[in-house]
Amino acid sequence: MSKRVVSIIVFPGSNCDRDLEIAVRNHMNVKTEYIWHNETNLKNKEMIFIPGGFSFGDYLRSGALATKSPAIKEVIRLSKKGVPIIGICNGFQILTECNLLEGSLIDNYNQLFICKECFLRVENSESMFSSNLNKSVVKFPIAHAQGNFYTSKDDLKRLEDNNQVIFRYSSEKGRVSKISNPNGSLNNIAGIINKEKNVLGLMPHPERAVDSLNDRDGIKFFNGLKNFI
Amino acid sequence: MKKLSKKIIEEHGLTEKEFSLIKNILNRDPNLLELGIFSVMWSEHCSYKSTKKWLKTLPTRGRRIICGPGENAGIIDIGDNDAIVFKMESHNHPSFIEPYQGAATGVGGIMRDVFTMGARPIANLNSLRFGSPKHSKTKHLLSGVVKGIGDYGNCVGIPTVGGECSFHESYNNNILVNAMCVGLVKKDKIFYSTAKGNGNPIIYVGSKTGRDGIHGATMASAEFDETSNENRPQVQVGDPFMEKLLLESCQELMKENAIIAIQDMGAAGLTSSSFEMASKGSCGVKLFLERVPCREENMTPYEMMLSETQERMLMIVKPSKVKLTLNIFKKWGLEAVEIGLITNTGNMEMFFKNKLVGNLPIKPLADSSPEYDRPSVKPKLKKKKRNYKNLSIEEALIKIISSPNHSSKAWVYNQYDRSVMCDTILSSEQGDAAVVRVHNSNKAISITCDCNPVFCKSNPLLGASIGVAESWRNLIASGAEPIAITDNLNFGNPEKKEIMYQIKQSIKGIKIACEALNYPVVSGNVSLYNETKKKSIFPTPVIGGVGLIKNINHAKGFKMNEGDKIYLVGESSGHLELSEYNMMCNNFEGYPPSLNLKKELKNGLFVQKFIQKYNNVVSGCHDISEGGIILALAELAISNKKGLKIQSKKSLKELKKWLFCEDQSRYLLIIKSDEEIVRYAKIKKIKIKKIANVVGESFTVTNRFDIPVKKLINYNNKWFKKFLDK
Fold first, then answer.
1. Which sequence positions of B are flagged as catalytic?
2. Is-contact B609 B459, C-beta < 8 A?
3. Residue B67 in 3-state DSSP?
4. Is B429's Cβ below 8 Å from some Cβ in A?
5. Domain span at residue A191?
6. Does B425 touch chain A (CB under 8 A)?
7. SS3 string of B459-522?
8. How distant is the Cα of B242 from the closest Cα of chain A, in angstroms?
9. Strands of B355-361's sheet, edge to edge?
10. Per-residue pLDDT tens digits for B105-134
11. A78: domain CATH number?
């Protein structure tokens, strides 16, 4: 096993931390470390994950209160130094709330929590987060009530022009349409990176697709991250 | 001391007889606080006074039973030092008044019952009954309840993997919301609620106590009327974030060898938790009520003792570990306070600002709670003259799959996070039972909720037995060995003889089936007075079954592949009374199909052994229940988006009967090759018959009719969307 250590930030109310830890340990072949939200000093600065769940009960707005945690201040600082940071589901919401990623995640178009399997077209395989996925279609489940990606017209254009969209909800064959859009996200956006290309946020859960009993596309995702730590 | 008026006693739901019993126990009149305590402890909800006598007859022991009824939840042994903790509980009355909060707190309460025992919850299920879709409240109740269940479980991060959801006019003014939780614990790390040790401190942790839910237990024990909305303040408000913190902090504390006894504050709050813990340990308790964390100002001891504020726990810890306990809770941002101590007086002494405000003997209060043998009489079933329709096979099938009860429930289950924790192998839309892996192992448990209230209304004994048998059958079909059940008995007013008859007969039906199938009852809940304006719900004894799959590869769902063959296991007599077909034809009369428990056992064990022995040739399995063979086959076609060719040489009349009859003890096995099953059935002397092939994209019934599966799917998907968009 690699001596490298991946950090997973845990907030009161995180509930995908265990699932993520198992996926990272098994499929990135690294050590893992949980970081409690009020820690101010991250010992390991190689790669940071922010897991899904309901940090601080998602009171006020999903992810909003978590941005006040000391650990997130540290995440912001390290992001400026180029440390790879990945936020999944609630983690994505936190990253938009603290402006490490653009846009916001608003209520799903039908105002309901949605849990289902989704196909995602990998839009940009040049990013370190998706280089192992080529330009393929992967299947990850979603489970959220606020995953409807929204931003201004100009920002959306910039995101697209800069190739910052990494995942888009699609059909099994990769067709992107209204039918394959589960939550109303603009341009079917499911995951984006920042301009500097070291921060990824995505609503679907790759850590829930790493099992021989279910779908295994998540394994490719985590395997691909190995080379960047 | 002021004497309590007759009116006050009545308002506390106590009869004159019960009040004089209280005076006898105390040798004096109780004060208001004491009266309030008696009233909740002796309420139907907490004391089971109308059903205790009958519940005692249920089988509760077995090779794998670690803990039966009487604790927070039942526990079964699944080997390798692993145990499963589970229970089902109703939240019917609150959910009708305030569907979102009522259902959410129902889920919260049952999860606490499970994690109180040291287990980590690994699956939630629910059994929901709503009124007719035509009823003005149904849409609002359905949306609120489903959202409430989803939001709570999703936030805590426990997958909601299955259950049932159906509609019937008998629930128009009294819906049923039964929530089940299943948890996993190491056998040597189980926590119980028996208080021990003179002087040991009692710690309160969780939400601050408010005035919500005061007398919730009494409300759950009274009939509804037009003024029920005035009960709104009695409905508690749920905070799943607080529940998550409680869960994680308790799990952390449970590793520390600090807890002597622990119980959640559920119905009747601080009263029932403290009394039950002390009563089990035959000890006394001293409570200093001014220390109870309160959310509102000037709360009285009466309000503190009776509040049903959610997300609170009570525990007795070792004196040397108090500091550690408080520190762990502090880390999780929870308020924990030492509010009292265990004594050897056998009394519950309640102090408020240094004054003794209540003093009750614990054992007599618990032990002499009333137990009634209420009179019962067999109800006469009214025969209604109706014009029966006659539907063709195709018409009836389409009607059934587009009906509210058999439409795709995707709108419901998509609101539940089913994949969190990464151990869900099958959720209930993918098979007869939900299958959840035991984390980090090669085994799984299988879980299902079942009841057929139409059968129970017609014949409560047989209907209840069929409920147990169906639950057992669902577990078998999923590849499991059924182990035990939890039951949630929902009935009307037990003071009515006809209702009491339904209760007694249903319990007897459960007992008979459980004994025959070696399928004991380890926990349960009774919900009575499910009536509004004197109209009772259909008898609804819901069975929550749990089984073990020793080898995860044996888990079976509805899966089938092109080229597979479908075999029918069991015999069909053509019983159509009370079947879905007859209902669609407007015919609601008659009796449930008969149930031969010996045959049930024989057919079930055949299927179980066949899956274990020839796992590689079995693609999937589906039991036959409501809607008969044809609905079971249609469900397979819809679920797989694959065509089926059904063969039969029967005449049209016979064919119809055979396709729609709801005879018991039958399964469909989906198999890759004929050889093994034919041979094995011969050895075991089981009647089997190949009835269909998986082929193409159409659902074909011999040369009678043929419909593209795509069309079936469209019919199946329409109803919920149309209903909710209206």
1. 45, 91
2. no
3. strand
4. no
5. 5-222
6. yes
7. CHHHHHHHHHHHHHHHHHHCCCEEEEEEEEEECCCCCCHHHHHHHHHHHHHHHHHHHHHCCCEE
8. 8
9. B259-264, B312-317, B201-206, B336-343, B284-288, B347-352, B355-361
10. 999 999 999 999 999 999 999 999 999 999
11. 3.40.50.880
Single-letter residue type at B396: A
Structure tokens, A171: 């059909």
**Is residue A139, in this structure, part of any structural domain at all?**
yes
pLDDT at A229: 80
Cα–Cα distance, B192 to B116 (Å, whole number) = 8
Residue A229 lies in a domain: no
| Residue A227 counted as domain residue | no
A96 φ, ψ (degrees, to nearest 5): -75, -35
Residue B668, pLDDT above cutoff 70: yes
* Contact assignment for B244 to A13 by CB distance below 8 Å: yes
- Band (A198; pLDDT cuts 50, 70, 90): very high
Of A99-103, B388-392, B457-461, least confident by mean pLDDT is B388-392
ipTM above 0.90, yes or no: yes
Number of folded domains that form chain A: 1
- A122 occurs within a structural domain: yes
CA distance B483 to A79: 52
Q: How far B249 CA sits from the closest chain A CA (Å)?
A: 10
What is the structure's pLDDT at B477?
98
Phi, psi of A22 (to 5 degrees): -65, -45
- Banded pLDDT at B222 (limits 50, 70, 90): low
With CB atoms and an 8 Å threshold, state whether B150 touches A113.
yes
Contacts of B380 (CB under 8 A, 6+ apart): none
Spatial neighbors of B156 by CB under 8 A, at least 6 apart, are A15, B111, B121, B240, B243, B244, B247
Q: What is the set of active-site residues of A?
A: 89, 205, 207
pTM, 2 dp: 0.95
* B665 HSE (CA, 13 A, CB side): 24
pLDDT, position B462: 98
pLDDT tens digits for range B555-605: 999 999 999 999 999 999 999 999 999 999 999 999 999 999 999 999 999
Contact (Cβ atoms closer than 8 angstroms) between residue B423 and residue A214: no
The answer to whether the Cβ–Cβ distance between A22 and B239 falls below 8 Å is: no
Angular region, B486: left φ>0, alpha ψ -120 to 50, beta rest: beta
Is the distance from CB of B635 to CB of B709 less than 8 angstroms?
no
Alpha carbon B234 to chain centroid, angstroms: 22
> Among positive and negative, which fits the CA dihedral B338, B339, B340, B341?
negative
